[in-house]
Amino acid sequence: MSSLQLSSPPVMRRTKRQWTGWMFVLPFLLVFALVLVAPVIYAVYLSLFRDQLVGGNAFVGFANYVEALTDPNFWDSLGRVVLFLVVQVPIMLLIALAAALALDSARLHAASFFRIAIFLPYAVPAVVAVLMWGFIYGTQFGLVGSFDKFFGIAFDPLAPNVVLAAIGNINTWEFTGYNMLLFYAALRVISGDLYEAAELDGARAFQVIRSIKLPALRPAIVIAVIFSIIGSFQLFNEPNILKSLAPNSISTFFTPNMYAYNLSFAGQQYNYSATIAIIMGVLTAVIAYIVQLRGSRKEL
Amino acid sequence: MKITRTRSLPVGRVAALATVGILLAGALAACSGSTPTASSSANADQIAAALQQKSTITYWSWTPQAKDQVAAFEAQYPNVTVNLVNAGTGNDEYTKLQNAIKAGSGAPDVAQIEYYAMPQFELSKSLTDLSSYGFSSLQSSYSPSTWTAVTGGSAIYALPQDSGPMALFYNKAIFDQYGLTVPTTWDEYIADAAKLHAADPTKYITNDAGDAGLTTSLIWQAGGKPYVSSGNSVTVNLQDAGSKKYADMWNQLVEPGLVSSTPSWSDAWWKSLSDGSIASLVTGAWMPGNLETGALGSAGNWRVAPLPTYDGTAATAQNGGGGQAVLAQSKNQLVAAGFLQWLNSGPGVSVFLKGGGFPSTTAQLNDPTFLADAPTYFGGQLINKVLLDASNSVVPGWQYLPFQTYANSVFSDTVGQSYANKSDLNKGLAAWQESSVSYGAQQGFAVNK
């Protein structure tokens, strides 16, 4: 906290410094420094070295970064999560939005049942959810297997060309409820006066949605998009668990996180792995920031 | 595949992996420091004396017999406490071990390591050279291929525990039903595969979704020597005569889709073994115990035959199997060495056998009661006789890479693609070689130079 001492004219007597505020944030700052700042600094430090099985550890400057940016495996994994982002996230958010508007419309019987039912998948631990879907996707003994047998086809959701869509389906199932709840909460805080005014002016339901509900949802949508971007870039659990069921469909560099994980734990390339992690962290932050800037402007 | 002798529990493994979690830089913070090296030497008397002192050691193992072995050891040496830790199966354990070695502390005194992974730990000088404890004299009590697997020059890095000479496990009921003959050559095996699958398209002669351990073992059997390493110089040639011979043969099963693509150890796999839709397995001698507990539906139907060969003369390879090593980090080297000797050369071996393990010690391999074992699961067949013959016909001279665990981890990225497209395995092997060569070069080895 050296910034505190920056502006202290030596001669003039000043009012006594107020430390109370600092004391309040101190516990947070300590934890923040310990679990966030320190590891990031350490990862940056690691990314500047290369430790080899033969020859030991050496400082290599930005060589790891140069290598990562020219590494086809890295670009392959990044391209895959970007594709996932632009396809899966809009589908998921649209379903969540439709569900939230339906729940909020007050025309639904048993609304609280639907609310909890849509939200429930989010409460299932991701690992369990993926294992469960893995069984459903099984072409021999799973639901898909029975389906295939019934229609006499040989559809395999874990085949290399469709496995990303299969993962997207799992993610949509898992996170629609969470986003629905975000939207629903935002809808609930809209003042009843607005609806009354709209009714008096003779607005139809769709006009209410377009002119009142959607504008009010804007901050929630921005938040949901940012969370989804981060979630997509961090895709790991689903492919990593499904890999044991479909080893040839999901490569060790299927997503950037899987790539970093495997570099680190299968290849002991901790330095290169840290480099990938840093690049992905910066990329995610930049994209999330752009979305936030764009989203908080008046018109989308 | 990283599992050898225990039935894998996919759920537990996956959950364990998941708890290791997404790469966090914080997890990396533990990975610095250097590895101490041991330079002590001692004799049998000093080890015996150390075992009488009060001490505690830690032992990492996932063998199902470890618990009974530790209990028996502690009964015999009441002053020594052994903390048994199951740090995960195969690669999960190696990852933790590697991290502890990097961190400079936290490694166990004794750890279970499979043969294929051993060179990696030898190279980083993480294992104590046991020749300084006079263990060289134990050579004659082990089967030659297992002893080769734990030694490098005059150094001894571990004592072998079990071995996995390969054999053909087949479901006799299915073979009889479809009129298949038990194959002695690979050509006959391929013919059986075609006949079975033509008769019933839901049945397959075997499964292979692409398994690095199986591939290297079959290359080994075909006489290939794709990996040659001495010191820092490594040669990788997955297109040598033996590798090609294997790939050209196995292609005839993979390309027409005669093998099931069900991954081994998956739930669907166990079900297929149970209901007969996978009719045989090409695997190591540690398999019987797994079948007995995992594929109950086909109990009594399974038999063991020698592995099919190219020309009909007996030849096989090791698949899986491993031993225990003393870590260089251990502060209690004498006790650790004493425990290891008890475990794999002393009374521990019989406890291991009682738990269904397949030994590496020649005395136990040739023990009449071991050979007279006729499990009802295998229809009363004297299976250990077949497996002993396999143990004696392992092709000599095989070596793994000093970074085999990495190479195996990218198998599905390379050879796995040939499986996914049902295309020429030689292409996949060439890609696998390329990955291994570039990793080796990056790690400072002189590869193919």
Automatic annotation (TrEMBL), chain A:
The keyword Membrane applies. It is found in: Cell membrane. InterPro entries: MetI-like (IPR000515), MetI-like_sf (IPR035906), UgpAE/MalFG_permease (IPR050809). The chain crosses the membrane at residues 21-45, 81-101, 113-136, 216-236, 270-291. One of its GO terms (biological process) is transmembrane transport. GO terms for cellular component: plasma membrane. Keywords: Cell membrane, Membrane, Transmembrane, Transmembrane helix, Transport. Residues 78-291 form the ABC transmembrane type-1 domain. It is a multi-pass membrane protein. This is Sugar ABC transporter permease. It comes from Subtercola vilae.
From TrEMBL, chain B:
Keywords: Signal. Residues 1-29 form the signal peptide. Pfam families: SBP_bac_1 (PF01547). InterPro entries: Bact_solute-bd_prot1, SBP. The keyword Signal applies. SUPFAM superfamilies: Periplasmic binding protein-like II. The keyword Signal applies. This is Sugar ABC transporter substrate-binding protein. It comes from Subtercola vilae.
